[in-house]
Design goal:
- The protein is mostly helical.
- It contains ten helices and no strands.
- The relative contact order is 0.07.
């Protein structure tokens, strides 16, 4: 299954390269996200070269897409996660992305992750809440799981359990949420 997904992703990127102009910011955003996955999944055979490619792609994305929120949210998130960008620079980028597209569920979800990486959990929680409110279908409880992880990190167990409620038994519940609930029960002395 992985080979199929990898092949499809590479095919998609190659098609984008053929059909989009070289100065299209979306092309460079897509390249940076694909390279990020390659590095994170430890599929890179030359991590330093791939990190440099990511840096160049992110620079081109913001250069060619100065009014595209995804250019800035990509650089904020990937730059902080893999390139050692400062919280100050990443926060500035994510704030710019939100200025450009304040009602995008995706931008808000990335903003939440960037704020959390920078230990600004108030902003992370606020952005995740906003993303959840405007996202009609939280596929695989992704945003809910993200928000739950922030509550868990700041030890807001009551808010975490209220967020999930009876949905804890959903067949497709995010694995992080299940782990948090198991830890919470373990802390209460319930080892079953």
């Amino acid at each position: 299954p992985y080979a199929f997904t990898k092949a499809k992703n590479l095919e998609m990127l190659e098609n984008m390269k053929k059909t989009l102009a070289p100065d299209n910011s979306f092309l460079h955003m897509m390249e940076s996200w694909q390279l990020m996955q390659k590095v994170i999944l430890k599929l890179s055979t030359d991590k330093q070269t791939d990190l440099k490619k990511i840096e160049v792609a992110l620079q081109k994305a913001t250069e060619y897409g100065p009014n595209v929120s995804g250019s800035f949210s990509s650089r904020a998130y990937i730059g902080k996660l893999l390139l050692g960008r400062s919280c100050e620079k990443s926060t500035k980028d994510i704030d710019k992305a939100l200025e450009l597209e304040p009602n995008s569920g995706n931008t808000l979800q990335v903003a939440a992750a960037v704020y959390a990486q920078c230990s600004n959990f108030d902003k992370a929680i606020s952005a995740a809440h906003s993303s959840l409110e405007i996202t009609p279908n939280d596929t695989n409880w992704m945003i809910t799981g993200q928000l739950a992880s922030y509550y868990f990190q700041i030890d807001e167990i009551e808010l975490l359990t209220k967020l999930i409620g009876k949905n804890i038994n959903a067949k497709d519940m995010d694995g992080r949420v299940l782990a948090y609930f198991a830890l919470i029960e373990n802390r209460k002395g319930n080892e079953d």
